[in-house]
Amino acid sequence: MRTTSATGNKFAACSREQARGAVVTAHDACREQARGYKGTTGAFTLIELSVVVFIIALMVAMAVPGFVRSYNGMQLDEAARAFATTCQYARIQAVSRQCPATLHVSVEQQSFWLSQMWAEGGAAPQELVLKRVVLPSRAALVRLDRETAETAGTNDADATTIQFLPNGTCEGGTVVFRGGEKGQGLAATVDPITGKATVYAIKL
Fold first, then answer.
1. Which residue has better confidence, 188 or 55?
2. What pLDDT was estimated at residue 152?
3. Domain 75-203, architecture per CATH
């Protein structure tokens, strides 16, 4: 019985040592594997970061031209719409006050403005500027097409006018605007009967 017990103890001790060695070996293997994963993960992260940066740069490079075209188109449209709105305002002022209103167009100053004669308190009538619009940087005023265009009574030799009358009619004409993109343009034609300006696209 004693011999059997001693043999069992030795066997148990040997099993514990083997198990302990196996645990140490497994722990070392896991630690080495973790080191390998750590180094590999760092390398892959750098590569992935470079790929992401490249994709972002590519997307920006593709989006910028479209954004610029859209911005140029918005500024051109803004200039033409402002002219059409000013024509409406000029007609309203002429009819409501029963006094002609004059819309001035200046290519040199890249602007247009509305003026009308005002008289207050029995004083002599004076020309008052009711509204002035300066074109945005990405839009340009090219010309005013009108057969009877007259130079305005100002110091601007290039300035021409469209007069709106108290009966709701006007002299009519077409103002041409150029955009920031090649060939991009808009025209605003003022109807001499209604005084309404119609805006449409043209090629320059």
1. 188
2. 40
3. 3-Layer(bab) Sandwich (3.55)
